Design the sequence.
């Protein structure tokens, strides 16, 4: 016996409300299973209400069903981490390494030319621009809160906070240098350190931008 | 078990797998949904399974099938398990005096 659209909606709501299933891929898969089990019970003469209760028990009830979603989230997050590492590694492989090296050389050459009064403002700009772009990308992804992409968004949001923390630590160092010319000029005198810090922060932010923007697809990227 | 089932078929969906296990073992063995889906997702993540979704009876149904890597891996794992069971059988069939 096939379920009606209303009955399918009823089962979908059950999964969403009683088991807190919110990610579309898990929801669709479990709905099909739940519906098939319900249909099997209805074929024995049960009413829809009774059949769906039996099917719910068969599925493992709320807690058992939630575990399936928890496992799915852990699985996807593991893949996101692997993909992120792969993206960062790709910046150090030919030919992407050429761009990375050129940006590094550019920073190395430009930093000593910046007037000391502007170096702090410029560093803020370099570091905060990727953060602003990340925020913009996250805003875009908020429109699809139940997709796999939302897991990437959550992951990126967590790391963006870390990125901002790095900015705060850097800011404290820079602010503490105000009034002391030798310390203020520290980042210009030791240009290599500046390049390393800037490049790390930029690569860190850009890798997340790439991850968010490439429409990360669960499993297929690793296959 | 999942790999073996899929080895002989073009594609299967979750509910179908649970029913096939029950049918093959005459109800002696069941695979719960809580064990089945995490296993399917893990195999999918490892690139051993591929999926396609099709709308059936008004709802989305996700079908799993073996990838090329999955086919090779399935054959390897089944051979390993068979060898293990053969050895286990040899040990279990030893006479107490030996």
Sequence:
């Amino acid at each position: 016996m096939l379920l009606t659209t209303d009955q399918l909606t009823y089962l979908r709501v059950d999964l969403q409300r009683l088991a807190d299933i919110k990610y579309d891929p898990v929801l669709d898969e479990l709905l099909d299973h739940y519906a098939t089990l319900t249909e099997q019970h209805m074929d024995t003469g049960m009413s829809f209400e009774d059949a769906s209760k039996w099917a719910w028990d068969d599925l493992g009830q709320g807690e058992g069903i939630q575990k399936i979603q928890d496992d799915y989230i852990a699985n996807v997050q593991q893949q996101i981490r692997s993909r992120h590492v792969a993206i960062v590694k790709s910046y150090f492989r030919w030919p992407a390494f050429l761009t990375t090296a050129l940006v590094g050389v550019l920073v190395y050459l430009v930093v000593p030319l910046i007037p000391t009064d502007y170096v702090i403002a410029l560093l803020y700009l370099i570091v905060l621009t990727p953060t602003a772009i990340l925020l913009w990308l996250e805003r875009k992804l908020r429109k699809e809160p139940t997709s796999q992409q939302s897991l990437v968004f959550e992951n990126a949001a967590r790391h963006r906070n870390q990125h901002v923390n790095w900015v705060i630590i850097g800011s404290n160092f820079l602010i503490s240098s105000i009034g002391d010319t030798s310390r203020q000029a520290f980042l210009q005198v030791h240009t290599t350190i500046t390049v390393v810090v800037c490049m790390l922060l930029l690569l860190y932010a850009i890798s997340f931008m790439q991850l968010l923007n490439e429409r990360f697809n669960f499993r297929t990227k690793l296959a | 078990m999942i790999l073996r089932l899929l080895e002989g078929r073009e594609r299967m969906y979750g509910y179908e797998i649970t029913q096939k296990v029950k049918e093959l073992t005459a109800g002696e063995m069941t695979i719960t949904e809580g064990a089945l889906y995490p296993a399917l997702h893990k195999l999918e993540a490892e690139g051993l399974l591929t999926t396609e979704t099709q709308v059936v009876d008004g709802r989305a149904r996700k079908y799993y099938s073996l990838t090329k890597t999955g086919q090779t891996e399935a054959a390897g794992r089944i051979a390993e398990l068979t060898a293990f069971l053969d050895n286990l059988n040899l040990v279990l069939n030893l006479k107490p005096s030996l």
Q: What stands out?
A: The mean pLDDT of chain B is 90.
